[in-house]
Amino acid sequence: MYTRRKLIKALAISSAALATDGLFISLKASEKSEKRVNKQHIITLSFDDGFKKSSILTAEIFEKHKLSACINVIATGHLSSFQIPDAYQITEKGDFGLWNELKARGHEIMMHGYKHAHKNEMPFEQAKDLILRCIDVFSKELKGFEPKESIFNFPYNASTPELEAWLPSQVKAFRTAGNGMNPLPFKGQVKLTCTGFGPGNSEDHLNAEIGKLLAKPSGWLIYNMHGLNGEG
Ligand SMILES: [Zn+2]
After folding, report:
1. CA-to-CA distance for 150 and 175, rounded, in angstroms?
2. Which residues, 6+ apart, have CB-to-CB distance to 12 below 8 Å?
3. What distance in angstroms lies between residue 32's CA and the mean position of ligand 1's atoms?
4. Three-state SS for 229?
5. Where are the beta strands (DSSP E) in 49-145?
6. Beta strands at 173-177 and 108-111: parallel, antiparallel or unpaired
7. Which of 125, 164, 175, 213 is deepest in the core (most CB within 10 A)?
8. How many Å lie between the centroid of ligand 1 and the Cα of residue 116?
9. What is the Å distance from ligand 1's center to 28 Cα?
10. Mean pLDDT, residues 8-33 taken together
11. What is the mean pLDDT of residues 122-136?
12. What is the distance between the alpha carbons of residues 56 and 98, in angstroms, rounded to a whole number?
């Protein structure tokens, strides 16, 4: 039987997915055929910024549905020296104690920058240095972290062609701005693009995007989210 985890593994991609009716249909089909089927829908809700309260609640909700959440955190977000990068990040961040706990519970904890900088507004070398520092912190702090099995989620989804060309030498894939509709996971897929809505409640927009996804024969919607109950 294909559990979600096995399916994702089979597709050689490491990203948390939220099952929809479409995905359940495809899971059943996969059980029968043991190979990728044509009609398949995957949704990743990609939660950014590592808000402590929201991350705990997000993980609990996903656990209720036997799914793993995708939580992207800032390497230095928990330190007292962390400088708030924008007006939405004023609440407490989780620390690596929490991230290790959530990872041990089966959730995906991924990189969302060293200090949440706009990497498209600085020289390449500086942006590269920040990413390497981010990888370094995760390697030291997050148990079982493997850069080459990880996704770098650009802060503000702000990348540059130069960074996009270099980054696959360091990580498995990266998430940046673009169309939220991605091809189904395939081996060697390095660029993931996402959509989102904000500031404000993204539920209606998300529902519309899910509708668009399900109207397609197949696809992978990556939807960028932040906190719950107004946080972030
Ligand atoms: Zn962010």
Report:
1. 11
2. 185, 186, 187
3. 40
4. coil
5. 70-73, 108-111
6. unpaired
7. 175
8. 6
9. 35
10. 41
11. 98
12. 8
Q: What does the pLDDT look like over 29-57, one tens digit per residue?
A: 444 444 555 689 999 999 999 999 999 99
pLDDT at 11 (0 to 100): 38
Instruction: Give the residue carrying structure tokens 């996804």.
Output: 213
| Residue indicated by tokens 């990888």 | 135
The first and second tokens of residue 138, run together, are 């995760």
Q: Ligand 1 center to residue 232 CA distance, Å?
A: 9
* CA 49 – ligand 1 centroid, Å: 5
The more confident residue out of 22 and 31 is 31
Residue whose entry in the numeric block shows the structure tokens 């990040």: 89
Q: What predicted TM-score, i.e. pTM, was given to this entire model? A: 0.84
> Which region among 8-17, 79-88, 125-134, 167-176 has the lowest average model confidence (pLDDT)?
8-17
- Interatomic CA distance for residues 226 and 232, integer angstroms: 6
